[in-house]
């Protein structure tokens, strides 16, 4: 890496002999001429003036700050006893640098720890999602009183000098990094005589190099008129003028806020992979916010999300339930529409089922929750405390900063939510129902310094319920309508009705689990606290008997559905070998939960299969009657609500399907390598088919009945 007086740090050789330095897809002819990668706070030909007014310094200064913990030391132990210790910021000798590093510019002492912590505090105030980032190293480069390349003494006396700074932070694994740019003063627009800017216009850009793209620091018209505007504007107007923040990893994402009005400007959304159950919060960097305005996040084809202003750069939006799987475009703008000529900012959120959500609540080994009895009476519960802020603080946010630990002290409740869906003839489709069954326990969110990036680990005692939201009769009768459910961790509402909460605040949800362990918690037989072997056996027997009854109910209900096997077998029969399924990508695709093509392979159903594929869209049916009369020829093809799953063994051969006799490899998991699904995994478009909740309908209609019946 090279640091240049011309206002950039470069990651390739930069030919900067000519009057202008050309970079980016527009102005270079790569690969004939080079297009170097660089971070350029103020790129144009500059000089370090030698003869300046007395008392003024000029130069390019740099230092590398690292945490002492990277070198296995506690704080304050870098007092090198051999030499004299001086705490000057720039002038440390090489023997006081970090171990094993060259040059005196590498600092790791109390000052560098403090500096990095302060930078993390700055980032939190301006970047959505920076609360979870822990910086371990920072490169600081300061261009101090540089002058434009073709300028004389009179220009410098007139104050045409520039001072600006780049701070580049990264974590220990170097997977995530952020850049902060500070502009103190900018006295020239270009590297030209008397700043008339005919040639060598100054630019502020991130360039990926080799025509991979270029991101300007400020894309507004004001910057195109005069680059000097950078030191007057700010991406974090509530902190200071002239400061801009960016997230730089695989893609450069502008953070802070911008007043760009024309065209589209990308929003920074954290998290941008979101649970389709909704009811969680996302943080947004977009337009510069005004507390007196109301802002909304509009979601393509769905309800809008209300947003609260945390500070002028960050808004926090509370998402509704989405019930869709895939990427949706979102638009952020004031509720007043474009009254003050604000354009909507555009962003993208990928909605996924709870089993694929990277932010989901970690509740231990998912397979254990499906066993009868659950092997451990105490299960783990893990979450990151910075995901929760105190709901009371939203009203007086002016007095609280995001980096203030008091924001994160909140009481959290762990709720069990049961899921079922039933046929509603009024709307001609299945209506999903999420019922809050009980609160298992209450936890307090830890808000000390180290829990900014460390997860909080607690325990769930699964046979203790803190508060039931069902009465005795409902617990003995209605509880068994819910074949499965999930856990949700959410802040306690200050004045919520303790006996019947209708809705919970935004929080984190877990993957779907079986709820059979709850059935015995309210039964008088099992309310004793002593655990004898007889009790355990009785509990297992009780669950078996109830599961059998629920299995019979499923047979009765499922027999009333259309006979879908004929459709799935004729219109979407499985390819015999895996190579054909891979080649047949239009009809089949890797199964999102049971394929090694995806990251998450906690497949709850296909034990013994190496890879599974599923039909890439709803299967079309070709008849709507009994199939005995002539009506089947006269009906048009119509999309059904089911799909096909095909699984292959390690040799790549199609495995047997579940409606043929199969061998079970493990006693507690049904062995069904491939099967037609009654509820298509991706759901169906609204008002077209029967099922609409992706993933959950498949659990309700296909997966859980196997556990109940087998």
UniProtKB/TrEMBL annotation:
It is found in: Membrane. PROSITE patterns: AMOP (PS50856), NIDO (PS51220). One of its GO terms (biological process) is cell-matrix adhesion. GO terms for cellular component: membrane. The keyword Hydrolase does not apply. It comes from the Eukaryota. Its main location: membrane. Pfam families: AMOP, Ig_F54D1_6, Ig_F54D1_6_2, NIDO. Residues 543-710 form the AMOP domain. This is AMOP domain-containing protein. It comes from Haemonchus placei (Barber's pole worm). The lineage of its organism: Eukaryota, Metazoa, Ecdysozoa, Nematoda, Chromadorea.
